[in-house]
Amino acid sequence: MRLRPWLVAVCLLGAGLAPVARAAPACAAEPPHAALVIDKGGEVLRYCVEFPAGRTSVSGIELIELAGEQHGLSYRFDSFAGVGLAVCMLDGLEPADDGCLGTPYWAYWHGDGSGGWIFATQGAQASTVPDGGVDGWAWGGSSTRPEPTAPESVCPAERSSPSPSPTPTPSPSASASPSPKPSPSPPPSPSPPPSPSPSGTPAPDEPADEDPAPEPSPRPANPAPGAEPTPSPVEVAPSPEATPRPTEEDRAAPTEAEPPRPRLEKPAFQPRPRDPGRRLDAVAASREQNDGGPPPAGLAGIAAALLLGGAATALVRRRRRDAER
Amino acid sequence: MSTTNPFYLLPLFAAAWFVHSARRIEGPGARSFKVFVLFGALTVGTRTALVLLGPVNRGSVLAAMLEGLRVAVMLAVFGTFSSVTDSWRILRLTPRRFHEPALAAALALSIAPRTIVAAARVREAQRMRGIEPRRWRALPALAVPVLATGMEEAGTLAESMDARGHGRGRRSSYRTEPWGPAAWATATTAALAAAVFLLVARALGGGLTPSTFPFVWPEASPWLVLAALSFSLPGALRPETRP
């Protein structure tokens, strides 16, 4: 979104003269902002993050820090000499072993502007998030894309209230109501993620019941295939499972009719990672399938390189013999 | 656009090695490949040792080694270039209107062979005086005269260029050398290989910077591997004899 200079000037003037002016709806959407999507593999957090004054772009790391300031997102970075900062933990979810570098990790994606994702080729410290951009973090690996998210669904062009509503939603996963409204009766109050229990669930510990849906809403037998969620002004959209996601199979997509399964095969969709270990297992198993040894073209290249090296040594040896003669 | 993918870097290194072995010219520059490969090995070692400043694990060590390898391959290619070319002859192959920038490039490129020559001379002189230059203690005794010789040569070169009217807009007296078939073939294959590498990498990706956090086998595009290997083709060409 390109802003007219005079409009910016007016807004800045207003902000400078009276802080109250910032609350005016006209200016509310004016400061540059970007969307931050954090897909925890069942629960998707979407934040509209405003840039600091005078900035038109931030790095991916800064975007997370700003989301921490503005929306209370918890995070942890580790610095690696010569490589930079790595994102270890977002919203309480982090690799279980090997410090920051465990196998399911936070994969970094950039929005392509129309809801899709492009895998980031640079670290979050080196990347630039422009005004109106989307950054995504998906728990899993390089093949785990975040939920498709259009920028305007997180940062509506005209936000009615200046107070940003992050509303991390305990996504009710399987019980995908096609209407993108917030879930009906027990409203998922925009509670910060580390809150102990989703409203409605009596105990923080998971019940033996495998049903991850926190609300008692009767689930539709068929989650309306092909029902695209219209981007809603409030970013609650519980993402109907009808939207095809490439990693759905990897994460052991929940099936409706299935009875409770043994614990280890529990579907990856949970209201919140009460027991991360189990979920890690599921994602790690899917990653190991993807990693099937060195590629044949690479091996052929190495073999050809060895041949070239052998030819080089033979040439040198022959030349030396000729010189001695 | 750069790559840390070992499946592309190792063929590139092999191509450089092959071209050096097949096409190196007689003279002091021929040793520059060995010198630069040594520097490259040192780079890999140093870059890997830097990991100790941060968390040490498989991912960070691998990332550091691959970054070091990238620099080492670049050094090897540069060493090959100085060992197979006579920078003054290259200067004569450049079109006349690019003469001044080409002269600057040739001067810069000739630093490596000139330094090697100077080092060899100083070592010989030391040996004649009974100093064993293989010891580490002899390194300062080697470095200072080499640097002094380099400064001296640069001064002499500047004076001689000034005397010949360089940098004053006058026509130089250099005669350009015509491009023969081998020169054309070398330039064409190298340009083609580079173009294929860049275009394919841009269009199809190909894992130029593989992930090491966590380690997965880097992908390898056959096109990119072929392009990297085809840089060795000039080594199989017959050289031109100087007219």
Explain this structure.
The complex is a heterodimer of chains A (325) and B (243). Chain A is of the alpha+beta class. Chain A has two domains: 27 residues, no CATH class; 217 residues, Ferric Hydroxamate Uptake Protein, Chain A, domain 1. Chain A is 24% helix and 15% strand. Chain A is built from six helices and nine strands, in the order ααβββαββββββααα. In chain A, the strands form three sheets. A five-stranded mixed sheet of chain A has the order 2-1-9-6-7. Chain A has a two-stranded antiparallel ribbon with strand order 3-8. In chain A, a hairpin with a 3-residue loop joins strand 4 and strand 5. Chain B is mainly α. Chain B has one domain. Chain B contains nine helices and no strands. Chain B is globular. Chain B starts with 5 loop residues before the first helix and ends in a 13-residue tail after the last helix. The mean pLDDT of chain B is 84. Chains A and B meet through strand 4 and helix 6 of A and helix 1, helix 3 and helix 9 of B.
Radius of gyration of chain A: 24 Å
Q: Terminal Cα separation of chain A, in Å?
A: 76 Å
Mean pLDDT rating of chain B: 84
Mean pLDDT of chain A: 63
Q: Count of helical segments of chain A?
A: 6
Structural class of chain A: alpha+beta
Overall geometric form of chain A: elongated
Order of helices and strands of chain B: HHHHHHHHH
| CATH overall fold name of the largest domain in chain A | Ferric Hydroxamate Uptake Protein, Chain A, domain 1
